[in-house]
Amino acid sequence: MNDSLHQAARQLRQHIHQFVALSDEEWHGLEPHLSIIHLKKNQFMVTQGVVASQIGFVLEGIFRQFYTKEGEERTTYFFFDQQLIAAYMSCITARPSPVSIEALSDATCLVFPYPVLKALFSQYTGWQEFGRLFAEYVMVALEERMAGLLMLSPEERYLALLEGDQRHLLQRVPQHYIATYLGITPVSMSRIRNRIIPK
Amino acid sequence: MNDSLHQAARQLRQHIHQFVALSDEEWHGLEPHLSIIHLKKNQFMVTQGVVASQIGFVLEGIFRQFYTKEGEERTTYFFFDQQLIAAYMSCITARPSPVSIEALSDATCLVFPYPVLKALFSQYTGWQEFGRLFAEYVMVALEERMAGLLMLSPEERYLALLEGDQRHLLQRVPQHYIATYLGITPVSMSRIRNRIIPK
DNA sequence: ATCTGTTCTTATCTTTTGTTATCGTTTTGG
DNA sequence: CCAAAACGATAACAAAAGATAAGAACAGAT
């Protein structure tokens, strides 16, 4: 049974390796703090208003991150397989999370506490470097997201999604979540689809 | 004459100190690479399409960062006194910058090459930590910017600006730049102002 | 298999925003 | 100091998006 934990840990290390090559010692600083959680569809991993303290790594499943305002939800991000998942901003700032993260399917995650990661930052240069590179990675993603919202029309944003890497993955999420991700209403997105598909 | 350079360097060190306390040795790794540049109003500090390699620190002046698309410009950020200024994304990714940065007034900056900073990252733990904290700082700012664009109406975004820290500084920049910063046209922003001021 | 709730489309109506053009006013450069 | 350019407000019209509601297709649960 612990096999699955070890295998998952290996996957996470592989993922982190894309950012930085950690020594075995550095890696072993994190490994004992890993555990696996299972979530049912529609279960929350992070709840708005609570200070987030867990970092996850998606082993299986789909998640959405969203803001709520006057009962209306706006999706800001989708998380898929083999991705780090967290209300990272809340972890960093230690302020209550403005967003919730919800499983859109039954899901499995490897998780560990952010305080552990933070301690590793100051303890090991490899982890400190990972912290920088990961933050830079998120930064670039956010900049592109912001630029899209500012520069592209709703139709262009939809088309960009269709051409993106996550094209096929997004087919598994309800369209009204995608609509709010694009900053428009589901009705408006339906019109856009209608306008485009005929081609 | 070198006095001004030293004084500027002290200001930069003070600014960086908000992120991390550098040892004298760490600081001296950067100091020799600092220089001062003067820009005239409307002069570009970073040009779209060129790989940026300079980090600046605004000593005096106002700057705007903007995207261009089919001749239309959208401002993504304003930079003021005592702020680090760069097409950081371009520096990090070593890809041509999608944005330009333009002085909106005669300006003075302290500058240094990004490659120097990058070398300091791997050489000193203090600098590595600064790299992480700075990236995290930018990340949080971008997340808030994105959330604003996704969650707030144009009018709410304008009101948020009026209540922001940079309230007074923004009075010195032409309104049509602010309009594109909010993701709307100058005409639309004029309507919003009209709608609001009567109160 | 049926029932219930969700999801998506479509239609209608309203509101908001963009577009274009005009007109004072201010700023800037020669 | 003057002419030209830039700036901001406003009006009129067109285009796009939001709100709401109705209905069809689909999935999940009992």
Question: How would you describe what is shown here?
Answer:
The structure is a homodimer of 199-residue chains. With 199 residues, chain A is α+β, with helices and mostly antiparallel strands. The first copy, chain A, has two domains: 3-131, Jelly Rolls (Sandwich); 152-198. The first copy, chain A, contains nine helices and eight strands. The first copy, chain A, has helices at 2-17, 24-30, 88-93, 114-123, 125-151, 154-163, 167-170, 175-181, 186-196; strands at 35-39, 44-46, 54-60, 63-69, 72-79, 84-85, 99-103, 107-113. In chain A, the strands form two sheets. A four-stranded antiparallel sheet of chain A has the order 1-8-3-6. In chain A, a hairpin with a 2-residue loop joins strand 4 (63-69) and strand 5 (72-79). In chain A, helix 4 packs across helix 5 and helix 8 crosses helix 9. The longest helix of chain A has 27 residues, at 125-151. Chain A is elongated, with a radius of gyration of 18 Å. The N and C termini of chain A lie far apart (52 Å). At the A-B interface, helix 3 and helix 5 of A face helix 3 and helix 5 of B. Chain A binds a DNA duplex (30 and 30 nucleotides) through residues 153-154, 174-176, 184-188, 190-191, 193-194. Chains A, B: Residues 37-124 form the Cyclic nucleotide-binding domain. Chains A, B: One of its GO terms (molecular function) is kinase activity. Chains A, B: Pfam families: cNMP_binding (PF00027). Chains A, B: InterPro entries: cNMP-bd_dom (IPR000595), cNMP-bd_dom_sf (IPR018490), RmlC-like_jellyroll (IPR014710). Chains A, B: It comes from Spirosoma fluviale.
